[in-house]
Amino acid sequence: MKLGYIIFYVRDVSATVAFYEKAFGLARRFVHETGTYAEMETGTTALAFVEEGAAKEHGFSIRHLRPNDEASAVEVALVTPDVAGAYARAVDAGAQATQAPKQKPWGQTVAYVRDLNGVLVELCTPMAG
Predict the structure, then answer these.
(1) Between 57 and 93, whose confidence is greater?
(2) How many CB atoms lie within 10 A of CB 127?
């Protein structure tokens, strides 16, 4: 088994895709013609967004993501050699600044922002291997 997708249920798929393009420089991998589902190009595992109403169609309920609510107990980590630049770009694009870039004891540089839906996004350098 392998991880294929990380999917967030969001209020507005089109706005979320546009935000991830502008804030993080990600490209669209796929956008369904209805605009209710999209995938971003992030490597082997796709980051995807689906319209909130799809949960009900699938037979379950969800706690909606909202920017003013406390962050969910999940984060998306985007790896970059330039965390400070990525952080500045994201904040300039409207991401909520959560934690400025900081060097961690294990050598990785890490910063945090929240996207327009309130999702916590970690921006980090690759782990030394």
Answers:
(1) 93
(2) 9
Helices 13-24 and 83-92 cross at an angle (nearest 10°) of 140
Give the per-residue pLDDT at 75. 94
CATH numeric code, 5-124: 3.10.180.10
Average pLDDT over residues 49-67: 88
Cα 12 to Cα 36, 38, 66, 84: the distances in Å are: 8, 11, 11, 28
Two tokens, residue 26: 């990600």
Residue 29 confidence class, pLDDT cut points 50, 70, 90: very high
Average pLDDT, the chain: 94
Residue 16 CB partners (closer than 8 Å, separation 6+): 8, 10, 38, 49, 115, 116, 117
Domain ranges of the chain: 5-124
Under DSSP, the state recorded for 127 is: P
Q: Which two tokens stand for residue 125?
A: 């350098």
Any bridge partners for residue 6, and if so which? 47
The contacts of residue 88 (CB under 8 Å, 6+ apart) are: none
